[in-house]
Design a protein that fits this description.
Elements lengths: L2 H39 L15 H10 L2
Length: about 70
């Protein structure tokens, strides 16, 4: 193989190596940003003592209509 072909082959190989590393870096950055957004999206807990699940009138109506 001539010297010119070796350089061209190595150029392609280097390109794909760098493209793979770049894709990995972008993926790591996306995971980092998603973790920050998840923390911000959590609702703040109220000082009402964590009332939790409440069976209101519309919930009771849903249960009534969903029965087989």
């Amino acid at each position: 193989m001539s010297e010119k072909k070796k350089e061209a082959a190595m150029g392609r190989r280097d390109f794909f190596k760098k493209a793979g590393l770049g894709a990995g870096a972008v993926g790591a950055a996306a995971v980092g940003l998603a973790a920050d957004e998840t923390k911000a999206a959590e609702p703040a807990k109220s000082g009402a003592g964590g009332r939790g699940y409440q069976e209101t009138a519309h919930v009771k109506k849903y249960y009534e209509l969903a029965r087989f």
